[in-house]
Structure prediction request, 141 residues.
Amino acid sequence: MFVESTNSRFSFVDIASSTKVCISHFRPFQPLRAVMDLVRGGLRSISQGWGAGSVFNVKAGTTITGFRGTDGVVFFQRNAGAVVAALHEGRMTVATGGKRETLGPNQFVAVRNGSMEQVQQLSGTQWRKLIEKTNVSNNPS
Prediction:
């Protein structure tokens, strides 16, 4: 499923099959304000130019990810208490349990049972495997 934003040059959210989300807040006007609760599964957000002050956050368990002009993936395995946030381009903020990290291009971080692990580099191969595992589009155009 794609959710597209008409308030930007090019933006969408690809929600993978077998994923359950709850849109807890959505205001499509500038600045965009959106909060999604990721109950299980994964999604990919690609956005360019959402506009100054725009906010798109995804909550997965106790972890919150904030997308800021990015190409990123969030994958939540509820039964394992694990969240993986990965960034291909742009910036993404990941916060849990009072700890906050900002991911840059080609980085990822895992959160297990509310504890954030160290930010790591993300290779092209790892990105492709994550896209495949998450079951989101690898060709957004």
Remarks:
- Helices lie at 124-134.
- The longest strand covers residues 33-48.
- Residues 1-8 have pLDDT under 50 and may be disordered.
- The longest helix spans residues 124-134.
